[in-house]
Specification:
By secondary structure, the chain is of the alpha+beta class. It has helices at residues 29-76, 109-125; strands at 2-3, 7-16, 19-28, 141-143, 146-149, 157-160, 163-166, 172-174, 179-186, 192-199, 202-209, 211-212, 219-220, 225-228, 239-246, 249-251. It folds into two domains: 1-47, no CATH class; 109-255, Glucose Permease (Domain IIA). Mean pLDDT is 75; it is low at 50-91 and 100-105.
């Protein structure tokens, strides 16, 4: 190769029928350098583009997971009167009466505010002995209050109006407050059900019982045995379905209950 100020000169030789042929090719330095620089720049842009796509996709994936986790946590910590939360059932025995899917309360926002005001009044001025402030049964919470996937399969959602508390058939169930028994018997998806009126429009329900130890009209005291845990009615296994209602509309039982004891 011969080099001068403007060109690179390349000499190529080949032989054919005992003769030697020489070919000379000159390449402009300017075009050679420009072409090399363009190739390097193109490679750099391609690499940067791939890295940028991976970075953006990675951020979007992380953001999606964070948003999903936030939605699940938010659903489990919604206020007692909010029935818009979605409840992702934990493994374990669950059940309860079938309820159709809905996104909001049947009532207006005014009605919701009225219920909240009523609950606050009851908490402040109601007789503590008639407030359901102790657990009817101690056990792991298999299913929270709120919307959930149908526990019997399919992709549909339904509203779960209480807490599903895990246990074994025959475990005791007690009254969390004083009151009068208004129902004691079989009731559809609840199976064997007890309903107690605590006054001020407050009621509690105990579903899927294996045995009922009270009858309608009985006056009961906080901590009194009312029945035994079971799996009757619409249930996947032994547990207690526990509800709290205000004027016959379900509210989150955690509104009155203390935190669970460490297990």
């Amino acid at each position: 190769m011969h080099k001068d100020d403007r060109y690179y000169t390349y000499l190529f030789t080949r032989s054919f029928r005992s003769k030697i042929y020489i070919r000379r090719i000159e390449i402009s330095k300017k075009w050679l350098h420009t072409g090399a620089a363009a190739a390097v720049l193109f490679a750099a842009l391609i690499t940067a583009g791939i890295a940028g796509v991976l970075k953006v996709e990675g951020f979007q994936l992380t953001e999606t997971k964070e948003n999903l986790n936030q939605q699940i946590v938010s659903a489990q910590t919604k206020s007692a009167g909010d029935v818009k939360a979605f409840n992702y059932a934990r493994p374990g025995s669950i059940g309860g009466p079938s309820a159709s899917f809905r996104l909001t309360n049947d009532g207006s926002e005014t009605e919701e505010n009225s219920m909240e005001a009523r609950l606050r009044t009851i908490e402040l001025s109601g007789n503590p002995e008639f407030l359901p402030t102790i657990w009817a049964h101690l056990g792991k919470i298999n299913n929270e209050y709120g919307f959930r996937r149908n526990p019997f399969g399919g992709s549909s959602y339904e509203f779960h109006g209480g807490l599903d508390i895990d246990g074994d058939t025959g475990d005791i169930v007690v009254a969390p407050a004083n009151g009068i028994v208004t129902k004691a018997g079989w009731q559809g998806g609840y199976g064997n059900l007890i309903e107690v009126d605590h006054g001020n429009g407050l009621q509690t329900r105990y579903g899927h019982l294996s045995r009922i130890d009270v009858q309608a009209g009985d006056m009961i005291q906080r901590g009194q045995l009312v029945g035994l845990l079971g799996s009757t009615g619409r249930s996947t296994g032994p547990h207690l379905h526990f509800e709290v209602r205000l004027n016959d509309k379900p509210i989150n039982p955690r509104r009155f209950l203390p935190p669970e004891m460490p297990r």
